[in-house]
């Protein structure tokens, strides 16, 4: 991981987290190991790719070891900032026990993508983004109090007295319904920000099979609330004040509307997650906000996207030098 500082204007400094040095070392090692020159790929995975449909021959023991080495290298690149390869990493890691020849080619494709897009870096932006949001009225607050009278965010006891400026927390969440063609499990994708800086990324298959898009999106939102609670606790425990609820941007309007006091639910299987989310809203932990799919960057963590779609979602965070993350949101 490389931390870069550059001055584009007088007295203005920008800090970036980059995996460029690690990627270069990784590529050198992989190309030497396989005796190949990796090709330039404009996305980690081919659009619509499903590894569970691969029927190529199984790898031998030596190639299995090399496949696992590739996956380990990709996972580490993801850990130090390359969230754009996270969905590809967790997808291909599922086949580490019995990979196929096609899986190995895809693993090399991912590393090829990182090789030719190694300059991607997450910029540290301390300014708070400005969102045009509707304020809840006193009537709405009264309705929340009636439905969840004991809802209250659990503030850690004896936490340090906050010093310095407070921060705004917000996230983007999404789910790809029934993504896995074998198990029909959905995939959750979440991007968590502090002020204008991306600090946490999450991509994982859901533990249950949801029979509707609403169910998969609701399950993803529940995980988003868990992450919000975790990050708000950590910030307070290191002496940082948190402004208001965590703003949660999702592209499923039905689920977003679940965060309103007058919303109803008829499907019993969703009741636990539904009330968990609503109680979190009532407690002031999170606030649900609708964002169109084309603008929801967490979509890049839920499915294999075509190169132009992937770039449009990830470039504001990794490759856009002119705009800040806050402006791009």
Architecture overview:
The protein is of the alpha/beta class and 329 residues long. The protein has two domains: 2-121, no CATH class; 128-328, Nucleotidyltransferase, domain 5 (2-Layer Sandwich). It has helices spanning 20-34, 61-79, 86-93, 101-116, 138-147, 213-237, 253-257, 271-282, 307-318, 325-328; strands at 2-9, 12-18, 121-124, 167-176, 187-194, 197-205, 242-250, 286-290. A five-stranded mixed beta sheet has the order 6-5-4-7-8. A three-stranded antiparallel beta sheet has the order 1-2-3, with helices on one face. A hairpin with a 2-residue loop joins strand 1 and strand 2. Helix 1 packs across helix 4 (101-116), helix 2 (61-79) packs antiparallel against helix 3 (86-93) and helix 2 runs parallel beside helix 4. The radius of gyration is 21 Å and the shape is globular.
Question: What is the structure about, briefly put?
Answer:
The chain folds into two domains: 120 residues, no CATH class; 201 residues, Ribonuclease H-like superfamily/Ribonuclease H (Nucleotidyltransferase, domain 5, 2-Layer Sandwich). It is α/β, with parallel strands linked by helices and 329 residues long.
């Amino acid at each position: 991981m490389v931390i870069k500082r550059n001055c584009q204007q007088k007295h203005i400094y920008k800090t970036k987290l980059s995996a460029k040095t690690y990627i270069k070392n990784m590529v050198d090692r992989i190309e030497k190991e396989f005796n190949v020159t990796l090709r330039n790929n404009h996305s980690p995975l081919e659009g619509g790719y499903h590894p569970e449909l691969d029927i190529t021959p199984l790898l031998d023991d030596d190639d299995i070891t090399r496949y696992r080495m590739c996956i380990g290298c990709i996972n580490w690149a993801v850990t130090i900032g390359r969230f754009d390869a996270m969905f590809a990493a967790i997808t291909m890691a599922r086949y580490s026990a019995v990979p196929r020849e096609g899986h190995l080619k895809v693993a090399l494709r991912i590393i090829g993508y990182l090789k030719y897009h190694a300059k991607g870096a997450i910029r540290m932006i301390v300014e708070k983004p400005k969102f045009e949001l509707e304020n809840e009225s006193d009537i709405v607050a009264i309705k929340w109090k009636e439905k969840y009278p004991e809802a209250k965010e659990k503030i850690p006891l004896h936490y340090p007295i906050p010093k310095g400026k407070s921060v705004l927390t917000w996230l983007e969440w999404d789910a790809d319904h029934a993504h896995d063609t074998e198990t029909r499990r959905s995939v959750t994708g979440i991007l968590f920000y502090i002020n204008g800086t991306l600090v946490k990324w999450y991509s994982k298959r859901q533990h249950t099979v949801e029979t509707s898009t609403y169910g998969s999106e609701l399950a993803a939102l529940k995980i988003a609330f868990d992450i919000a609670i975790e990050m708000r606790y950590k910030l307070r425990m290191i002496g940082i004040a948190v402004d208001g609820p965590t703003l949660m941007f999702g592209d499923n309007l039905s689920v977003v509307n679940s965060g309103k006091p007058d919303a109803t639910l008829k499907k019993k299987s969703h009741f636990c997650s539904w009330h968990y989310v609503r109680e979190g809203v009532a407690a002031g932990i999170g606030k649900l906000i609708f964002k169109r799919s084309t603008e929801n960057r967490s979509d890049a963590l839920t499915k294999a996207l075509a190169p132009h779609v992937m770039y449009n979602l990830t470039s504001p965070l990794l490759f856009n030098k002119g705009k800040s993350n806050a402006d791009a949101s």
